[in-house]
Design goal:
The termini are far apart. The radius of gyration is 15 Å and the shape is globular. The protein has a single domain, classed as Alpha-Beta Complex (Aspartate Aminotransferase, domain 1), CATH 3.90.1150.10. The protein is of the alpha+beta class. The strands form 2 sheets. Strands 2-3-5 form a 3-stranded antiparallel beta sheet, with helices on one face.
């Protein structure tokens, strides 16, 4: 499954129509996922997975203070902004799209809303590790 990390109306998931995405985020879906407490636990796990990697890396950086971080939108930059396009190209080749950050801020942004599975975030982190290993100086 491809993962879209962007900011469209249904940007946190790919491979599904808008009506299918609506079904994935309604009250019945919440019950199927174990209720709001289970969804919150999953969202915390996804955010921690990505933030923990970013915080441990000297190749990537997160510009947001820990106390102000979002569980849904995770911005990050590469140590060398000249690698941004290469990063995006490689992510797209792996089925990950919409990672480009806001035009006024730059860098990257992973939107990991409720419909994004933990496996999607794990795939992003695995790609980030691979990219870092290839391009870190």
């Amino acid at each position: 499954m491809a993962a879209i990390f962007g900011s469209g109306a249904y940007g946190a998931i790919s491979g599904h129509s808008a009506s299918r995405c609506a079904k994935l985020s309604g009250p019945r879906s919440a019950r199927r996922q174990g209720g709001l407490a289970a969804i919150e636990k999953q969202n915390i796990a996804k955010a921690n997975l990505l933030y923990d990697y970013l915080d441990a890396s000297s190749f990537y950086a997160n510009p947001v203070r820990k106390e102000d971080r979002s569980r849904m939108n995770v911005p990050f930059t590469l140590k060398d902004a000249a690698l941004d396009e290469e990063f995006l190209k490689g992510a797209k080749a792996k089925g990950m799209a919409q990672l480009k950050g806001h035009r006024s801020v730059g860098g990257m942004r992973a939107s990991i809303y409720n419909a994004m599975p933990v496996a999607g975030v794990a795939a992003l982190v695995a790609y980030m590790k691979e990219f870092e290993a290839r391009f870190a100086k």
